[in-house]
What we know:
Blueprint: H1 2-11, E1 18-21, H2 28-37, E2 46-50, H3 56-64, E3 65-66, E4 78-79, H4 81-84, E5 89-93, H5 100-112, E6 114-115, E7 124-125, E8 129-134, H6 138-144, H7 149-155, E9 158-161, H8 169-187, E10 193-194, H9 196-204, H10 210-224, E11 230-231, H11 238-245, H12 267-289, H13 294-300, H14 305-319
Parallel strand pairs: 1-8, 1-9, 2-5, 5-8, 10-11
Antiparallel strand pairs: 3-4, 6-7
Helix pairs in contact: 8-9, 8-10, 12-13, 12-14, 13-14
Amino acid sequence: MTDIFRVIENVAGHNTNILIQGESGTGKELIARAIHKQSNRQSKHFVDVNCAAIPGTLLESELFGYEAGAFTDARKRKVGLLEYASGGTMLLDEIGDMSIQLQAKFLRVLEDGYIRRLGGTENIPIDVRFIFSTNKDITQMAAEGSFREDLFYRISVVPILIPSLRERPDDIILLARYYVDEFNKKFMKRVKGFSGEAEHILKNYSWPGNVRELKNIIERVMILKRTGTTITPDLFPVEMKSSINHGHVGIQMIPSIPRFSSEGVNYEEATAKIIRDIKNRILNNALEVSRGNKTKAAKMLNISRYKFIREFNKTANHSK
């Protein structure tokens, strides 16, 4: 993270295109805003656009704007976000979800430095500092042809890769304490920190939602905190404590091996039973962590909901 902060300082004063990559919740937008605030464009607009949240045709009109009569319901001219952001910074979030057709048009903007509104003929020069972000592997997408390779090279002049929270275990408690201080001020409370057991859970949880999930959990804990100055595990979500207790949906114990007798053991039956027992424990642990939600349990195990139900019923019938 210290290296990333240095990169922010080094690139802020330049108009170089930046590609920020990282899992959802790692703080990609915060990095983009930090670059904008340290640049000479800080007094101008910072415009963020989520490419995944806006359908392709609508995204084009939002970015480029349109002239009156360009299409049905276009009763008057609309200034696009690219034109609005001129002089400032634009963050195109989830750039990997931009359609191939729009990618081609946007590449032209990067190369020529002007836009043309939908239905218009006038070339409008723009001066925008572009920052791009994604939680997808753009390199792989470019290799597969689902993302334009020429655009990839234009947007990733300076790549910034944000590590997930589980890769930064030393940051977890620091961030948690920071959010405790933040919510102490917001909720007018005097919580000082965490018990040893609570810190253990925080450090060992996998944090699939990264820093965003950590902040949300601390906010929830601070709202529920009524007495005392130390946060204890009883205020943490059940699924968070369960994932620690069960080793992230692991096997609690190895099934017992059948005793050998003078008559021997039926190898096929014995191994089949052991496999069923292991499957049964994995499925039940997943179901417990997901609070009985089969869809979530299946997702945790990287299998379809149909397969989860089929396997669950199969092991349940054998155990009767």
